[in-house]
Protein backbone atom coordinates (compact mmCIF):
# COMPACT_ATOMS: atom_id res chain seq x y z
CA UNK A 1 0.00 0.00 0.00
CA UNK A 2 1.04 3.58 -0.61
CA UNK A 3 2.01 5.15 2.72
CA UNK A 4 -0.52 7.83 3.51
CA UNK A 5 -3.24 6.41 1.24
CA UNK A 6 -6.53 5.72 3.06
CA UNK A 7 -6.94 2.03 3.73
CA UNK A 8 -8.58 -0.68 5.81
CA UNK A 9 -8.22 -0.68 9.60
CA UNK A 10 -4.65 -0.64 10.90
CA UNK A 11 -3.06 -3.75 12.32
CA UNK A 12 -1.62 -3.30 15.82
CA UNK A 13 1.93 -4.57 16.28
CA UNK A 14 3.20 -5.24 19.81
CA UNK A 15 6.42 -7.18 19.31
CA UNK A 16 8.24 -8.87 16.45
CA UNK A 17 8.61 -12.62 16.08
CA UNK A 18 11.25 -12.70 13.35
CA UNK A 19 13.68 -14.48 15.68
CA UNK A 20 16.32 -11.85 14.90
CA UNK A 21 18.27 -10.52 17.92
CA UNK A 22 16.80 -7.03 17.57
CA UNK A 23 15.03 -4.58 19.87
CA UNK A 24 13.33 -1.30 18.98
CA UNK A 25 13.37 1.67 21.32
CA UNK A 26 10.39 3.92 20.59
CA UNK A 27 10.30 7.43 22.00
CA UNK A 28 7.39 9.73 22.77
CA UNK A 29 8.54 12.92 21.02
CA UNK A 30 8.00 15.91 23.30
CA UNK A 31 9.86 17.93 25.89
CA UNK A 32 12.74 20.37 25.90
CA UNK A 33 14.46 20.41 22.53
CA UNK A 34 17.98 20.81 23.97
CA UNK A 35 17.57 17.75 26.19
CA UNK A 36 15.83 15.86 23.38
CA UNK A 37 18.77 16.49 21.05
CA UNK A 38 21.19 15.15 23.67
CA UNK A 39 19.16 11.94 23.98
CA UNK A 40 18.95 11.44 20.22
CA UNK A 41 22.65 12.23 19.75
CA UNK A 42 23.66 9.83 22.54
CA UNK A 43 21.70 7.06 20.82
CA UNK A 44 23.08 7.82 17.35
CA UNK A 45 26.63 8.07 18.67
CA UNK A 46 26.14 4.66 20.27
CA UNK A 47 25.08 3.19 16.93
CA UNK A 48 21.42 2.96 17.91
CA UNK A 49 18.61 3.97 15.56
CA UNK A 50 15.24 4.51 17.20
CA UNK A 51 11.68 5.45 16.32
CA UNK A 52 10.41 8.81 17.59
CA UNK A 53 6.63 9.12 17.74
CA UNK A 54 6.16 12.85 17.74
CA UNK A 55 3.40 14.75 19.48
CA UNK A 56 2.09 17.37 17.05
CA UNK A 57 2.31 20.25 19.51
CA UNK A 58 6.05 19.50 19.92
CA UNK A 59 6.52 19.74 16.16
CA UNK A 60 4.56 23.00 16.17
CA UNK A 61 6.71 24.46 18.96
CA UNK A 62 10.01 23.27 17.43
CA UNK A 63 9.66 23.22 13.63
CA UNK A 64 13.17 21.78 13.25
CA UNK A 65 12.50 18.84 15.60
CA UNK A 66 11.46 16.54 12.74
CA UNK A 67 14.68 17.26 10.84
CA UNK A 68 16.69 16.77 14.05
CA UNK A 69 15.21 13.27 14.38
CA UNK A 70 15.76 12.20 10.78
CA UNK A 71 19.19 13.85 10.37
CA UNK A 72 20.46 11.69 13.22
CA UNK A 73 19.27 8.54 11.43
CA UNK A 74 16.16 7.98 13.52
CA UNK A 75 12.63 7.30 12.28
CA UNK A 76 9.64 9.61 12.76
CA UNK A 77 6.04 8.67 13.47
CA UNK A 78 2.74 10.16 14.68
CA UNK A 79 1.79 10.16 18.39
CA UNK A 80 -1.36 12.32 18.02
CA UNK A 81 -1.61 16.09 17.98
CA UNK A 82 -1.85 16.84 21.71
CA UNK A 83 -1.55 13.50 23.56
CA UNK A 84 -5.07 13.32 24.91
CA UNK A 85 -6.67 10.14 26.28
CA UNK A 86 -8.18 9.00 23.00
CA UNK A 87 -10.88 6.80 24.55
CA UNK A 88 -12.41 9.91 26.12
CA UNK A 89 -12.76 11.71 22.79
CA UNK A 90 -15.61 11.40 20.28
CA UNK A 91 -14.74 9.87 16.90
CA UNK A 92 -14.31 13.28 15.28
CA UNK A 93 -11.91 14.34 18.04
CA UNK A 94 -9.84 11.17 17.65
CA UNK A 95 -9.70 11.63 13.89
CA UNK A 96 -8.56 15.23 14.34
CA UNK A 97 -5.78 14.17 16.74
CA UNK A 98 -4.45 11.67 14.19
CA UNK A 99 -4.83 13.81 11.08
CA UNK A 100 -3.51 17.10 12.48
CA UNK A 101 -0.27 15.44 13.54
CA UNK A 102 -0.08 13.53 10.25
CA UNK A 103 -0.48 16.75 8.26
CA UNK A 104 2.20 18.49 10.33
CA UNK A 105 4.67 15.62 9.76
CA UNK A 106 3.82 15.71 6.06
CA UNK A 107 4.50 19.47 5.89
CA UNK A 108 7.88 18.97 7.55
CA UNK A 109 9.05 15.75 5.89
CA UNK A 110 6.96 15.16 2.76
CA UNK A 111 5.25 12.08 4.21
CA UNK A 112 2.90 11.05 7.02
CA UNK A 113 5.56 9.36 9.14
CA UNK A 114 6.21 5.64 9.39
CA UNK A 115 3.83 4.77 12.20
CA UNK A 116 0.91 5.87 14.31
CA UNK A 117 0.78 5.22 18.06
CA UNK A 118 -2.21 6.14 20.21
CA UNK A 119 -1.64 8.38 23.22
CA UNK A 120 -2.14 7.53 26.91
CA UNK A 121 -2.69 3.79 26.38
CA UNK A 122 -0.58 0.74 25.59
CA UNK A 123 -3.14 -0.68 23.16
CA UNK A 124 -5.37 0.87 20.52
CA UNK A 125 -9.12 0.32 20.23
CA UNK A 126 -10.85 -1.10 17.15
CA UNK A 127 -12.33 2.35 16.56
CA UNK A 128 -8.89 3.95 16.64
CA UNK A 129 -7.43 1.34 14.27
CA UNK A 130 -10.21 2.11 11.80
CA UNK A 131 -9.45 5.84 12.02
CA UNK A 132 -5.68 5.29 11.74
CA UNK A 133 -6.16 3.09 8.66
CA UNK A 134 -8.38 5.73 7.07
CA UNK A 135 -5.70 8.35 7.83
CA UNK A 136 -3.15 6.30 5.89
CA UNK A 137 -1.43 4.24 8.59
CA UNK A 138 -1.54 0.51 7.81
CA UNK A 139 0.08 -0.27 11.17
CA UNK A 140 -0.38 1.00 14.73
CA UNK A 141 2.70 0.58 16.89
CA UNK A 142 2.13 -0.70 20.42
CA UNK A 143 4.87 -2.05 22.73
CA UNK A 144 5.53 -4.96 25.06
CA UNK A 145 7.85 -3.19 27.52
CA UNK A 146 7.35 0.11 29.37
CA UNK A 147 10.64 1.68 30.46
CA UNK A 148 8.74 3.67 33.15
CA UNK A 149 11.03 6.61 32.33
CA UNK A 150 8.00 8.93 32.18
CA UNK A 151 7.63 8.52 35.96
CA UNK A 152 11.21 9.83 36.47
CA UNK A 153 12.18 6.84 38.66
CA UNK A 154 15.92 7.43 38.23
CA UNK A 155 18.31 5.99 35.63
CA UNK A 156 18.89 2.73 37.51
CA UNK A 157 15.20 1.80 37.33
CA UNK A 158 15.07 2.64 33.63
CA UNK A 159 18.16 0.51 33.04
CA UNK A 160 16.66 -2.38 35.06
CA UNK A 161 13.44 -2.20 33.01
CA UNK A 162 15.42 -2.34 29.76
CA UNK A 163 17.11 -5.55 30.95
CA UNK A 164 13.69 -7.20 30.50
CA UNK A 165 13.83 -6.58 26.74
CA UNK A 166 13.91 -9.74 24.63
CA UNK A 167 14.54 -10.32 20.93
CA UNK A 168 11.63 -8.66 19.14
CA UNK A 169 10.71 -6.29 21.98
CA UNK A 170 9.30 -2.84 21.36
CA UNK A 171 10.15 -0.55 24.27
CA UNK A 172 8.19 2.57 25.18
CA UNK A 173 10.47 5.47 26.17
CA UNK A 174 10.25 9.25 26.36
CA UNK A 175 12.34 12.19 25.25
CA UNK A 176 12.48 15.15 27.64
CA UNK A 177 13.60 13.23 30.73
CA UNK A 178 17.08 13.66 32.19
CA UNK A 179 17.04 10.18 33.77
CA UNK A 180 16.59 8.66 30.32
CA UNK A 181 19.61 10.53 29.00
CA UNK A 182 21.70 9.45 31.99
CA UNK A 183 20.69 5.80 31.50
CA UNK A 184 21.48 5.56 27.77
CA UNK A 185 25.19 4.59 27.94
CA UNK A 186 24.41 1.72 30.35
CA UNK A 187 21.36 0.64 28.36
CA UNK A 188 23.44 0.47 25.18
CA UNK A 189 26.20 -1.44 26.97
CA UNK A 190 23.72 -3.93 28.49
CA UNK A 191 22.04 -4.62 25.14
CA UNK A 192 25.39 -5.01 23.39
CA UNK A 193 26.51 -7.48 26.04
CA UNK A 194 23.34 -9.48 25.38
CA UNK A 195 24.02 -9.23 21.61
CA UNK A 196 20.74 -7.43 20.97
CA UNK A 197 20.85 -4.89 18.14
CA UNK A 198 18.91 -1.63 18.34
CA UNK A 199 16.89 -0.94 15.20
CA UNK A 200 13.97 1.25 14.15
CA UNK A 201 10.47 -0.21 14.37
CA UNK A 202 10.33 -0.46 10.57
CA UNK A 203 13.52 -2.55 10.56
CA UNK A 204 12.27 -4.66 13.49
CA UNK A 205 9.07 -5.66 11.67
CA UNK A 206 10.62 -5.95 8.20
Written account of the structure:
This protein has 206 residues and is an alpha/beta fold. It is 40% helix and 15% strand. The protein contains eight helices and eight strands, in the order E-E-H-E-H-H-E-H-H-E-E-H-E-H-E-H. The protein has helices at residues 33-45, 56-61, 65-71, 91-109, 126-134, 155-162, 178-193, 201-204; strands at 11-13, 22-29, 51-54, 75-78, 139-141, 145-146, 170-174, 197-198. The strands form two sheets. Strands 2, 3, 4, 6, 7 and 8 form a six-stranded parallel beta sheet that branches. A two-stranded parallel sheet has the order 1-5. Helix 1 (33-45) links the parallel strand 2 and strand 3 (51-54). It is globular. The mean pLDDT is 95.
Question: What key attributes describe this structure?
Answer:
206 residues, alpha/beta, 6-stranded parallel sheet, two-stranded parallel ribbon, 8 helices, globular
What is the structural class? alpha/beta
Number of helical stretches of at least 4 residues: 8
Can you give the helix content as a percent range? 25-40%
Mean pLDDT equals: 95
Largest sheet: 6 strands, parallel
Q: Tell me the Rg in angstroms.
A: 16 Å
Separation of the first and last Cα atoms:
15 Å
What is the global morphology? globular
| Number of strand segments | 8
Run of helices and strands: EEHEHHEHHEEHEHEH
Amino acid sequence: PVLGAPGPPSVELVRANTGRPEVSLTFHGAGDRTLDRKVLEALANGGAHVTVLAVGTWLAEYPDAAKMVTDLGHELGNHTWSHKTMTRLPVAGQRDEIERCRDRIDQLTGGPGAWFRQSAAQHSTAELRTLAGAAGYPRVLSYDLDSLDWTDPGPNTVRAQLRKAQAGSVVSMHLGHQGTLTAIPQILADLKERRLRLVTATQLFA
